[in-house]
Fold this sequence. Notes:
Elements: E1 21-23, E2 26-30, H1 39-47, E3 52-56, H2 66-84, E4 87-91, E5 94-95, E6 109-110, E7 114-116, E8 122-125, H3 148-181
Parallel strand pairs: 2-3, 3-4
Antiparallel strand pairs: 1-2, 4-7, 5-6, 7-8
Helix pairs in contact: 1-2
Amino acid sequence: TYSKCSAYMKFHKQGREFPVFxxxxxxxxxxxxxxxxxxxxxxxxxxxxxxxxxxxxxxxINAAGLIGHFMKVRADHTxxxxxxxxxxxxxxxxTVGKESSVQGFDGVGYGDSYVIDPHGExxxxxxxxxxxxxxxxxxxxxxxxxxxxxxxxxxxxxAREFGPALAEALRDLESQMKAKEN
Length: 182
């Protein structure tokens, strides 16, 4: 099983395990909703051999933030596919009309499910605000999509070379944020 790693609601249980499964010779992993906005979960799955990352969502967004959310999520998912040489499959809800949200506001689930290939191309997608079924044939083990050693090797080099500087910069930022709170 997989537990959501970015537990931002009280009822979420924070997880730190990133299992990879295999079916019909294809290795895959799952990241839930906002976990796809972070670099590390998809990177960990790719490093463990996943060729496909499935990302189920339940987006319930207020109207004012809809376009910005749509653009950010699409950019994040395209980046996850390209930087990790994986197919990224997003499934999102469509909520027609207004309903009460667990977040306490009226919003909309806008759909926009898709399959992105390791080069960042959208192979198939659903329409926004319309319930659809998405079908897409992929060959996750096709050699033209496998330049993983180069990309994952770069990840290892990058973590080793820049990890300490990034950690220091983030500690400094955290200190600045705490100073502003006081």
